[in-house]
Amino acid sequence: MEAKSRRNQKITSSVLFGFALFYLLSSFRLSMGTLNNPGPGLIPVGIGGLLLLCTTVHLMGVFAKKSLAREPEADETRPARGRNYPAILGILASTIVYPVILEPLKFLVSTTTVAFVMLVLLKPQRPFSSFFLALGMAVASFVIFSRLLGVALPSGFLENLLFQIGR
Amino acid sequence: MLDIVQGLWGGFATALKPLYLYYALLGTILGTITGVLPGLGPLGAMAILLSFTLTMDATGAMIFFAGIYYGAMYGGSTTSILLNIPGEAASVVTCIDGHKMTQKGRGGAALTVAAIGSFIAGTISILGLMIVALFLSDIALRFGPAEFLAIGVSGLVLLVRLSGGSILQSLIMILVGMALATVGVDFLTGLERFTYGIQELGQGLEFLPVAMGLFGIAEVLTTVEQKEFLQKVTKVRLRELLPTRHEWNRSVPSMFRGSFLGFVIGLVPGPSPVIATFVSYIFEKRISKRPEEFGKGAIEGVAGPEAANNAAVGGAYVPLFALGIPFTPAMAVVLGALMLHGLTPGPNFIKAKPDLFWAVIASMYIGNLMLVLLNLPLVNVFVSILRVPKNILLPAIVLICLIGVYSVNASPLDLLLLAIFGFIGYALREVGFQPAPLILAMVIGPMIETSLRQSLNITGGSLGGVIFRPICLALYTIASLTFIVPVVLKWIGKTRPAARLAQDRAADDA
Predict the structure, then answer these.
(1) Residues 57-76, chain A: which have Cβ within 8 Å of B?
(2) Which residue range(s) make up the domain with B51?
(3) What is the pTM of this model?
(4) What is the DSSP secondary-structure string of A9-63?
């Protein structure tokens, strides 16, 4: 468990270092200007330089196994944990897929699909009830956002039908 | 003084309109619900519900958010007292004595003391907010870009020092936030920065998907790994809610002390409500005639911290309204909501938008009253929210985030940003980074850059002219001292025992 946490720290620290390096190099392409007439690149170069310094120190600390950062304290608000990577990846995938299917499938179908996937991932034993729950969530969110809050959502036949029934 | 009375009168006339009363009620209820749920504190709740405010006017949005903030503070204490589960970080201290009181059968009294304490603190902090914000905004009208730069920089420095976690990690988060704030068209030259040909990035990274991702989606992903919130709920009967005369006598002075302490701490950058509760608890224990009772169900240990965290909320509004600078991450979200409505707070804000300022102040009074009247009788209802299965609650939160972000610009890029920042927020928390300083720096970043470039322009590139101005120098000194003093104290602490040991040895030898 600790080894996994250490590995995660190394990955995160490396990504942050990579981001800092990329940001600093990109900011050198912008004009720095002078001190009495600063250009658009002056502040980014300053931020990038400091960020690179901090992430380097952090990276060295993590790789030297001398944790500079305090270990995450046992948070009293968070009870015991057990990894559920399929659900985490599924929820993340749903948020990425949702904008892709929203326009072609319209609101109700796409929202029901995404909600159904998440519900099944979190409780795989009940796919049938999960479907109706997902449908209920989609209809409820359509009513709240579209009817009550006046948000324009991608609508097709089903949405228009729901709108007609609601009148 | 007459201005204050007139302003407040006008504020109440606005805040008592049925629509605004509805927003205040909705905010307090939603705030209490999110406060009750472990993990989802006021910041997460505000970020998730940010898109809801788009259908409201700016006044309605501010009233709604004030209700959420107060409600979340109160909701967090309910579960701390009854179940030993702090709904959010500022309620951790309340668990110590609050839950012990429940075990002794005095949970109802603890809840009432927490509610009344919160109400008194809310009222005192609103009075403080009115006076200090008006006074500070008058002074701030004389500030130039160098002073605003000093406030922004020293605010972030204090945040790094007081955030509680690793200084290096907080500093990295602040710098990442400032880096993200530089994406988009440069305001002075019109040149695009870090957009990589993506047109939508020209306006900069949208605040809504970033905030909702870092605090909404990331919280969901973290919560997936937890067990169900609750198995058994302690019920409270209405007649148990009344404290005894002895309990009143012990708790009322603590409420007032906590209120003043909390308001002052609320003015300092950082997670002020959390700090306020700890400081108040330690203070109450130190001055108590019965310090041995602390940790075993001392009512002062509930009254003081509960008053302090609510008062800190009022204090946190001061820099936002008077200077236009948020000192806490939650205030950064409030600023984000104001900017979504086309408003940018600054020293002129109270004078330019008096209706909004006074309506928010008045709604805070109303919201506090609503909390006392609603939450005590409905305490069992709010606690039963913890019975809603996680597998239903989490997809519902994700859907609110998705539809909420989509509803602003109907932009697939925003939804992608939501997913990306959701993952980033989750990954950062997993290794102990707190994303709160990132969001604060992202909001303050543009102000710091503008102020620095303007100051350098004005002073002809002289850094001395930017730093060595009375107010700037004072602020930079205070910020530096927060780093120097702990090091010196630590050094003194280390050298004293050594010196004493050497003296003792010398005496022995003699």
Answers:
(1) 57-58, 61, 68-72, 76
(2) 2-468
(3) 0.79
(4) HHHHHHHHHHHHHHHHHHHTTS--B-SSSB-TTHHHHHHHHHHHHHHHHHHHHHH
